[in-house]
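INFO batch 0412 | record 1 of 1 | parsing
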Amino acid sequence: MTAPTYSIHGLTFDQVAAINALLGRDAAPTPSPTATGALVEEIEKALDIQPLNRQRELILRALLERAADDWTPFAEIVSRFEAEGLSRDQAQAGLRDLSWQMSHLPQACIAALPQKIEALAEKSRSSGVTSYRLTPAGREATGRFLARQPGR
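INFO prediction complete | emitting tokens
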């Protein structure tokens, strides 16, 4: 049986505990069989903090429409924005808004993350290209959240 994972980076609880011990942090929380379901619910609540605007909707849809293991380059998100008459700055603002919303997750969900948005979507930078993909919990929460939006 595979050890349960703790973070979006696929580390086991023991690995996270070892890293935290090296960094002088508290150990990883005790695994819970409902941890993923609880994280989905928390992300969904965070997405509900403010009414959905066009910028956040474009970003969430761009990420959700990709296969679960595919990365979405930021340039592709910007292209979607430009097709809608919006700017690169508005795309960046939408990502900042999503990150702000994720800052409302319980501290235990975001403490080990480099950026708060990574509870929702992982971020990768390679050869000068920034890309995003939804975490498994982020994908489920985003799908549920967008399905509940009236008239969308």
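INFO post-check: The first strand starts at residue 72 and ends at 73.
INFO record closed
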